[in-house]
Q: What sequence folds into this?
């Protein structure tokens, strides 16, 4: 008998929640104290915390249903396979897509982009071709393309940003040339918080027959993303930033395009027939999932989507917007403090620098007040170079954060200012 | 926690980070090396000029946090007159002070301002900030003329 109220792979669907104070109760870690102070976790852009539903789903798998998938004829293997597939189906449905086969489980955003740059890139990018990126990309959406450009003899071009931190879309048409093979861009900037108009950008590329990849790592944590509205060819994200476990993520690829691509890793589970001379490969998604996948991770990610789905996102987006507004207001009253990224409607990500105080020192002083933020270059060195800074401090919020926590943050930043002023 | 913070950001550290000594390039020099922490983007270039087997002068330039700047600044005040071997030994004393488990209980009279860096021990994430310049120094002592 299971101690759990739901069978393996099925998830509870409580009533819609709005009040962050109620949502917080779902996240056991938020009870923690650090340095004797209540934890104020504002490093959600690096990784989010996990609700009990996700932790329970993973534990339930290991305690009651651990087996490999697609292999055994025994009951546990069948259950595990079902739970794994059900996670994929749930994600497909939540993202407004029609075919679960379009969703490949990968380790995370980074692996998904490497997969596309390898499998799609080696097939379609040749000497003299262009790969178009933007100035606000994470290293994960730069380096795999550099590898590809080097292999193929292709060139990387870059769409610049405006001073307030938006993509300079007026310059997009001129950069979408007959040599451009792919446009890869972030949906939401992990530094600036800017939410890019993904549908509009994808349309501009599609009208010219150019393939698009959207990096959704920082978008999926802040409410449902509808892929049919965006109209991209590839969409990639990690589980761990949207309440799911680490080591699991998703590559969405448009059906026909994904089916036309060669595998990138060989091994078990992705093949049909194998001899020492030759092998044939299964259709997606199996073709791209060589070896035993992260089964518990996929189940945990399915649980994270189910948890996400039952939240009241229209209201929570409003709440996240209020968190940004309050943070901007509180921080800008501190002398010498500058915020990077001020585009209206931004995601709850606030990067800032302070005159005469290095972000590392800000981070250490905030930590002493229980406030966890990120300090550094945020894996976006080209963007920081464009902004004329080496590093910055970044407070990034999730829907469980509160306005009281914004106040604690602001007080801690004032303390840092006092230390160094 | 605030006690630890006070120990980390002692007056000496704040003073050196705000008004670093020997913050300039050194030409000519007998060795130079850039220390870089890719995790935070901190950069420090250390210059040394050796004469008759001893360090005559050392300096640094770079960008970094209060800890890395103070450590680099204090370092440049300690090197004149040391042989390269003595400088390496000094660097290893610092690494040990920052990483060993028990309290080093260094006093400022005996060990000079560098003892102020002992507060970093309570902040494991910041130890690399404090050692950055020293690693660059060790590298510069093996360096070529420039």
A:
């Amino acid at each position: 008998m299971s101690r759990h109220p739901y069978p393996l792979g099925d998830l509870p669907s409580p009533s819609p929640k709005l009040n962050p104070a109620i949502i917080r109760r779902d996240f056991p870690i938020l009870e923690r104290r650090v340095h004797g102070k209540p934890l104020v976790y504002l490093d959600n852009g690096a990784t989010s915390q996990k609700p009990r539903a996700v932790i329970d789903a993973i534990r339930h798998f290991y305690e009651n249903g651990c087996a490999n998938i697609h292999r055994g004829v025994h009951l546990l293997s069948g259950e595990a396979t079902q739970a794994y597939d059900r996670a994929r189906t749930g994600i497909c449905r939540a993202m407004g897509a029609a075919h679960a086969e379009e969703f490949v489980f990968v380790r995370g955003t980074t692996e998904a982009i490497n997969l596309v740059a390898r499998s799609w890139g080696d097939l379609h990018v040749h000497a003299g071709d262009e790969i178009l990126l933007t100035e606000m990309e994470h290293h994960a959406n730069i380096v795999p393309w550099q590898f590809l450009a080097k292999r193929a003899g292709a060139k990387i071009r870059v769409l610049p940003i405006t001073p307030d931190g938006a993509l300079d879309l007026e310059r997009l048409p001129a950069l979408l040339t007959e040599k451009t093979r792919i446009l890869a861009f972030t949906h939401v900037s992990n530094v600036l918080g800017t939410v890019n108009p993904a549908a509009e950008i994808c349309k501009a590329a599609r009208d010219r027959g150019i393939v698009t990849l959207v990096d959704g790592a920082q978008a999926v944590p802040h409410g449902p993303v509808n892929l049919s509205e965006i109209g991209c060819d590839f969409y990639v994200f990690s589980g761990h930033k949207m309440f799911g476990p680490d080591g699991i993520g998703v590559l969405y690829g448009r059906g026909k395009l994904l089916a036309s691509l060669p595998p990138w890793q060989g091994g078990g589970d992705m093949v049909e027939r194998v001899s020492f001379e030759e092998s044939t490969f299964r259709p997606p998604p199996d073709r791209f999932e060589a070896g035993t996948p992260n089964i518990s991770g996929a189940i945990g990610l399915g649980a994270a989507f189910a948890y996400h789905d039952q939240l009241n996102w229209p209201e929570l987006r409003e709440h996240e917007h209020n968190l940004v507004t309050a943070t901007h207001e509180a921080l800008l009253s501190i002398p010498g403090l500058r915020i990077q990224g001020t585009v209206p409607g931004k995601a709850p990500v606030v990067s800032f620098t302070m005159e005469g105080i290095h972000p590392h020192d800000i981070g250490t002083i905030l930590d002493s007040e229980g406030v966890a933020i990120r300090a550094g270059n945020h894996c976006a060195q080209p963007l920081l170079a464009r902004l004329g800074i080496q590093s910055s401090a970044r407070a990034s919020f999730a829907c469980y954060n509160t306005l009281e926590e914004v106040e604690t943050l602001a007080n801690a930043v004032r303390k840092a200012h006092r230390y160094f002023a | 926690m605030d006690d630890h913070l006070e120990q980390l950001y002692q007056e000496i550290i704040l003073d050196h980070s705000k008004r670093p000594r020997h913050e300039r390039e050194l030409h000519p020099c007998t060795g130079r090396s850039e220390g870089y922490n890719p995790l935070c983007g901190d950069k420090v270039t250390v210059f040394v000029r050796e004469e008759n087997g001893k360090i005559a002068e050392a300096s640094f330039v770079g960008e970094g946090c209060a800890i890395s700047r103070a450590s680099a600044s204090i370092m440049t005040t300690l090197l004149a007159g040391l042989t390269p071997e003595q400088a390496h030994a000094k660097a290893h004393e610092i690494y040990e002070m920052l990483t060993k488990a028990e309290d080093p209980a260094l006093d400022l009279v005996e060990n000079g301002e560098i003892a102020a860096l002992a507060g970093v021990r309570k902040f494991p994430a910041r130890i690399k900030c404090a050692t950055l310049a020293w690693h660059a120094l060790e590298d510069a002592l093996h360096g070529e003329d420039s």
